[in-house]
Amino acid sequence: MEDTDGERDSGDQTPEDQERRGELRRNGERRDVVDNRLGVDRRDRVRACESEERRAELNRRRGPGRRRSDARRSAEEGEMNDEQFSFLMAINEYKSLNKRPFPTWTEVLDIIHALGYRKVAEPENIQ
User: Which of 69, 97, 110, 124 is the most buried (most CB within 10 A)?
Assistant: First the structure.
């Protein structure tokens, strides 16, 4: 089978063709590979004015963000109070007893009721 360059396909190579290709590879001369690395590296190009303006526009620092309560911040950082820890242990106990890796929200509400929590106050905004 002829290739577009007039060469045979690798499956139809004669021993002479294989030897010639092996010799080209040993000498570092491969005709079928294009080296796109020639020329100026784009990272080396200097755009003095443009790069300074671009960096000034892209201020990546974030704003003050949301304020979290101390209890929530400490829980997210791995420090839990007794109430949070008892809730976590109750969830883990439920999961192990019922062989459920992900309880539904109804089951979570049942766990909360089993811990003794009841709705006695008016709802507040979630922060």
Answer: 110
State the Cα angle at 85 between 69 and 116, rounded to 5°.
95
Q: Model-level pTM greater than 0.90?
A: no
DSSP string, the chain: -B-TTSPBPGGG--HHHHHHHHHHHHTT--TT---TT-S--TTT---HHHHHHHHHH------S-----HHHHHHHTT---HHHHHHHHHHHHHHHHHT-SS--HHHHHHHHHHTT----S------
Rg (CA), the chain: 34
* Listed residue (118, 121, 113, 125) closest to 87, CA to CA: 113
Give 27-49 pLDDT, tens digit per residue: 665 556 666 666 666 666 665 55
